[in-house]
Design brief:
Elements (H helix, E strand, L loop, with lengths): L2 H9 L9 E3 L7 E2 L5 E11 L10 H19 L2 E11 L4 H17 L3 E9 L3 E11 L14 E5 L4 H7 L9 H12 L5 H6 L6 E4 L4 H12 L2 E5 L7 H6 L7 H5 L6 E5 L4 H10 L4 E8 L3 E5 L5 E2 L13
Helix pairs in contact: 2-3, 4-5
Bound molecules: adenosine-5'-diphosphate (ADP) and magnesium ion.
The site of adenosine-5'-diphosphate has 13 residues, from helix 1, strand 4 and strand 5.
Length: 322
């Protein structure tokens, strides 16, 4: 099996096309276009075996998540996904693994109507680097820097279940097989919130996706916007499964500091709250108000009794101990 055959057999036949893609896989480079009045939004993310997922993770999940983390960045900007490229480093030619990998990858690509237009395939330690492009009306992107004093702070879906799944990895936690399956699904096959992100254009003042933990990612918004905030811990959207095991894993901290949630955190003026909650309901993706943006810098927390407490969950940082 040559590199050419791998590309032909596994990547060139995704069965998806878009008007924006003039030339896809097969030439020296791809050709795309952006319609007048639109802007292109570009992101890239790498998943490496042993760092971002254990080597024995299901290949479908690796394919899915490699794309999902990029889609999530586009969602946080409010962009419609259009195309992606993929640089793949494979340790060996494994037919079964590749089939399962592309089935997870292309199932998610089809769901979001995003087209694979090129990439590179090399032999080496397992690593997947995807670059994705989206589009939106010029000037309408949701940035981290737009939060205003008095904005309500929202989170989509539930947070903390990926952290719970990770905490279960060593088998020390007392959790039912059924609950474990559910939280593993959240960790391995995250949903990207692209429809929600696009609907938030013109309603939200700032947005970010939660990859490093709510505390760290909300802090990025606050620093970029020159603002602070107080979060009401009682309002955090925690799943029934998370709450069942919260005590065993040390309370709310994991939901704030672990990450891998791939939910959206965003801020919007109070007058848009009802509209946004309705949008969440229509998309079957609940959104929850968890706090408010304030003038005074810093991130503060109110506990279940309404008292101010301090929490030092810093979020994930690859180079924190270097
Ligand atoms: P070159 O030597 O010009 O870089 P390649 O043999 O690497 O060409 O790639 C041939 C074609 O296959 C190109 O269109 C490239 O974008 C595409 N391609 C290679 N690897 C991948 C991949 N992992 N996913 C998608 N397309 C790929
Ligand atoms: Mg190449």
């Amino acid at each position: 099996m040559s590199e050419f055959d791998i590309i032909q057999n596994y990547f060139a036949n995704q069965g998806l096309n878009r008007d924006e893609v003039i030339l896809g896989i097969g030439d020296d480079a791809a050709i795309t276009k952006v319609a007048t009045g639109l802007e292109q939004v570009i992101t890239t993310d790498t998943l490496t075996s042993g760092v971002h997922f254990p080597i024995d993770t299901a290949p479908e999940a690796i394919g899915h998540k490699s794309l999902a983390v990029n889609l999530s960045d586009l969602a946080a900007m409010g962009a419609e996904p259009v195309w992606f490229t993929m640089n793949l480093s494979l340790p060996e030619y494994d037919k079964d693994w590749l089939n399962r990998f592309v089935s997870g990858l292309f199932a998610l690509a089809a769901k979001h109507n995003i087209c694979l237009i090129g990439g590179d395939t090399v032999k080496g330690p397992l690593s997947i680097s995807i670059q994705a492009a989206g589009q939106l009306p010029a000037g309408s992107a949701l940035r981290r820097s737009g939060a205003k004093t008095g904005d309500k702070i929202f989170v989509s879906g539930f947070i903390g279940d990926a952290a719970l799944a990770f905490a279960c990895r060593d088998g020390q936690l007392d959790i039912s097989q059924q609950d474990l399956l559910k939280v593993n699904q959240v960790l391995n096959m995250p949903e990207a919130r692209n429809l929600l992100g696009q609907k938030l254009r013109g309603l939200a003042n700032s947005a970010i996706d939660i990859s490093d933990g709510l505390s760290a990612d909300l802090t990025h918004i606050l620093v970029a916007s020159g603002r602070g905030a107080t979060i009401d811990l009682q309002k955090l959207p925690l799943s029934e499964i998370f709450l069942k095991h919260a005590e065993q894993i040390g309370g709310h901290g994991l939901a704030l500091g672990f990450g891998d949630d791939y939910e959206l955190c965003f801020t919007a003026p109070e007058k848009n709250v009802n509209k946004i909650i309705k949008i969440g309901q229509d998309l079957d993706c609940p959104v929850t108000v968890i706090g408010e943006v304030e003038k005074e810098p810093g991130l503060r927390f109110k506990d279940v009794y309404g008292l101010n407490i301090s929490i030092t969950e810093k979020g994930y940082d690859h180079f924190a101990n270097v």
